[in-house]
Amino acid sequence: MNKSIQTIRHANFEIRFILVVICQNEIALSQAMQKEFKIYLKKHLGKQRCQLESAQYDGRCFMIEFYGIPNMNLSTTVNNIKTVTARRLRKQFPALKAWAALWSDQYGLFTSRAAAKKFLKEIHK
Fold first, then answer.
1. What are phi and psi of 55, to 5 degrees?
2. What is the average pLDDT value for the chain, to the nearest integer?
């Protein structure tokens, strides 16, 4: 059985989400910052009974793919991801404290890569 297929009671499911988190400004996050972001993200998603598939940074946005569960509160999860990662990155890398906000209020949450990529094209216009 695929490791992303999960079971709660008698229900089997595989729900993949693609979250696009936008930086407030174009910030050159170093490789070390990106690595720490992924570590915090994986740990936080694990607490939510979710599984991180990948997280890629393109200089403006993080595209995060993860497997979730049917009864998760998506808006709370997204808010927590943004809050926890910003707080931890600022603590680890004091240079980021110069930014009033690390992440933009705007984000995208999708279940297909095609839709996420379309959203990214709109962001990068």
1. -145, 120
2. 86
Determine the pLDDT at residue 111: 93
Report which of residues 41 and 123 the model is more confident about: 41
Place of tokens 């936080």: 44
Q: Which domains does the chain have, with CATH numbers?
A: 18-123 (3.30.70.1290)
Backbone angles phi and psi of 50, in degrees to 5: -115, 165
Give CA torsion, residues 106, 112, 116, 121, to 10 deg.
Answer: -150
What pTM does this model have? Answer: 0.84
Q: 6 is written with which tokens? A: 């999960």
The pLDDT tens digits for 39-66 are 999 999 998 889 999 999 988 889 999 9
59 SS3 class:
coil
Phi, psi of 31 (to 5 degrees): -60, -40
CA-based nearest residue to 54, from 37, 70, 71, 69: 37
